[in-house]
Amino acid sequence: MYYICTHLINKIFSLKKNILYTKSVNSSNIEKKWLLVDATDISLGRLATSVASLIRGKNKPYFTPHVDCGDNVIVKNAEKIKLTGNKLKQKLYIRHTGYPGGQKSLTAEQILSKNPSILIEKAVRGMLPKNKLGSAIFKNLRVVNGENHKFENLNPEEFKINI
What we know:
This protein is an alpha/beta fold. About 35% of the residues lie in helices and about 15% in strands.
């Protein structure tokens, strides 16, 4: 009887040794890189989904939903983004001032002429979680109008978006 019990206990413990556990990372285990994405002639939505996936970290094998494990992304040439169809004239970005009758709206064309980086930032922000983690992840995105940027000393890797 004693032998059978100890034999079963040893068998149970040997089975537990063979179990593979999912590794959950925390902020100290994460290795962040700087990536450079060129927005020239890429559709706004396709660019935004790729960038949101990169800054969220979904392309990494150790992706953890409750941790900021994504890379830092720099998007250059924001003014050369492509909008298909009649979206330049018809797509509206609506905001409210908080006062009665304070609804304001701008078309994508107006925003593109004023500050093109806002279009990319709004598209990417809409694809992130709506909580504190989403706000922290959004800080990993830098959008630059034009070819030159001030992040060259960080040696960002070129990242080609396959579309």
